[in-house]
């Protein structure tokens, strides 16, 4: 975590290998400020289970296809992206493009005390700015569970709750 520039994921290969050997799930901060190459390294060198941010992966069509094909989850934090000047306005968030490409994108908060906005504020901001429809918002919510490290039974239960809510509030 922290600033990516000048700190490629490969710099942390030994630490990630050790964490994996201890049975830990691996998540790397890649492709927010750093180039698409950092996302490649997170996947190929660190062998991560999930990527925090990944915005700049959208610059590499082959990487986009790979992320979608591997069902890799990207935890996107629109308000933090704005505060860090990764995007100039919320309407530039890559969330819609990620969904359109079949990427398992999620909406998250990133240190709300510093960047402002908890998860709900991030959802509201990106939903309004990108004019996301009900189905897209449902997909983002579902992705947050399928991309989590919860037990499969818990994921199934939570997805069923989304289905129930969706069926009764349409």
What does this structure look like?
- It is a single chain.
- The chain has helices at 13-21, 36-44, 61-69, 78-83, 95-100, 112-115, 119-130, 134-146, 152-169; strands spanning 27-30, 50-53, 73-76, 104-107.
- Helices cover 51% and strands 9% of the residues.
- The radius of gyration is 16 Å and the shape is globular.
- It starts with 12 loop residues before the first helix and ends with a helix.
- With 170 residues, the chain is α/β, with parallel strands linked by helices.
- It has a four-stranded parallel β-sheet with strand order 1-2-3-4.
- The protein has nine helices and four strands.
Total beta strand runs = 4
Mean pLDDT, to the nearest integer, reads 95
Low-confidence spans:
none
User: Secondary-structure element sequence?
Assistant: HEHEHEHHEHHHH
Query: Termini, distance in Å?
Result: 39 Å
Instruction: Please bin the fraction of helical residues.
Output: 40-55%
What is the beta-strand fraction? 5-15%
- Please tell me how large the radius of gyration is: 16 Å
Strand order of the largest sheet: 1-2-3-4
Quaternary form:
single chain
Structural class: alpha/beta
What is the global morphology?
globular
Main beta sheet: strand number and arrangement? 4 strands, parallel
Number of helical segments with 4 or more residues: 9
Topology record:
Blueprint: H1 13-21, E1 27-30, H2 36-44, E2 50-53, H3 61-69, E3 73-76, H4 78-83, H5 95-100, E4 104-107, H6 112-115, H7 119-130, H8 134-146, H9 152-169
Parallel strand pairs: 1-2, 2-3, 3-4
């Amino acid at each position: 975590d922290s600033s990516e520039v000048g700190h490629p994921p490969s710099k942390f290969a030994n630490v990630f290998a050790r964490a994996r050997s201890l049975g830990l799930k691996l998540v790397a901060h890649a492709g927010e400020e750093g180039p698409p190459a950092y996302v490649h390294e997170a996947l190929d060198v660190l062998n991560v289970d999930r990527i925090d941010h990944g915005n700049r992966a959208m610059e590499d069509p082959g990487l986009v296809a790979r992320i979608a094909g591997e069902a890799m989850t990207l935890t996107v934090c629109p308000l933090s992206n704005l505060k860090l000047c990764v995007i100039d306005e919320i309407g530039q968030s890559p969330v819609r493009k990620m969904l359109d490409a079949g990427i398992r994108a999620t909406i998250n908060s990133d240190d709300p005390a510093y960047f402002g906005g908890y998860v709900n504020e991030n959802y509201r901001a990106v939903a309004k700015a990108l004019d996301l429809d009900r189905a897209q918002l449902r997909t983002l919510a579902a992705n947050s569970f399928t991309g989590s490290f919860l037990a499969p039974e818990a994921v199934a239960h939570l997805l069923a709750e989304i289905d129930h809510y969706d069926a009764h509030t349409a």
